[in-house]
Amino acid sequence: MATVYLDLYIMENFCVDYALLHIVGSVMQLGKNRKRLLGAALIGAAGAALPVVLPVGSEVLTQLLWCAVGMVMVRAAFCLPDIRLLFHTFFVLVIVSFLLQGIVEWLGRHSSFPAPILFFAGYAVLDGVRRFCVCQKRKRETIFPVEILYRDQRIRASALLDTGNELRDPLTGLPVMIGEYGAFSRYLPDGYKRLFERFCESGTADYQAMSDNGWSDIRWISYKTIGHQPAMMMGVICDRVQVRTGQKTADCGKAVLAFAAQPFSGKEGYTVILQNNMVH
Questions:
Q1: Would residue 126 count as lying in a domain?
Q2: pLDDT tens readout for residues 238-250
Q3: Is the residue at 124 inside a domain?
């Protein structure tokens, strides 16, 4: 008969329950209070020790006890007032538990590391998958493919929806997108490029050149960011903008594409910042 060291058994279950609750809270986007998580993990560890101290003699009763302890853990960890959300969160806890157990068992079959290292490796794998899914979800919610029609050119790009961008052209009232100049310069006439480069060097708009050449689709957009003085961006009126949102395509009609001299996308890969109302 195997010897069970109760103190180690409780400590092991405490660590496992805390990790599981941490992942469940992130997946369900619930507020995570460390003291509550620790208390709930302690409840789970005590519940796991009950069948060891007081054997119930039935596998069915043991599983029912595990379910009851799991429900109490979830309630204690996240203070859920809604019964449906409580059951939903408990279901996620069960799924995460099975996934973590499967990962640890697979690692155990293919390595000779001790159980604690296997557990933390399994947790790292599961948490990495969670972070990747959250990142992809955020991208789907905020980054959209767009198609811009400008001077008979169809330009496809990825765009970030910025809920803080309320810019509009004061003359036409058109919504203003912001694009990386480096990504769109090849679509501009040579005269527009020279105008933009002179603007970047001098900081002033050459209205005389615009008037002499009849560049009526150029717009100068004033803006202000926190901690900086008001400034201007050069932009052009696009004939049509379409934003793909899931299975639907939003036809935004005409819009102004203003140019930022410096890249802003980083690792996300978008080259356009949409105006807030262009997706709704």
A1: no
A2: 999 999 877 788 8
A3: no
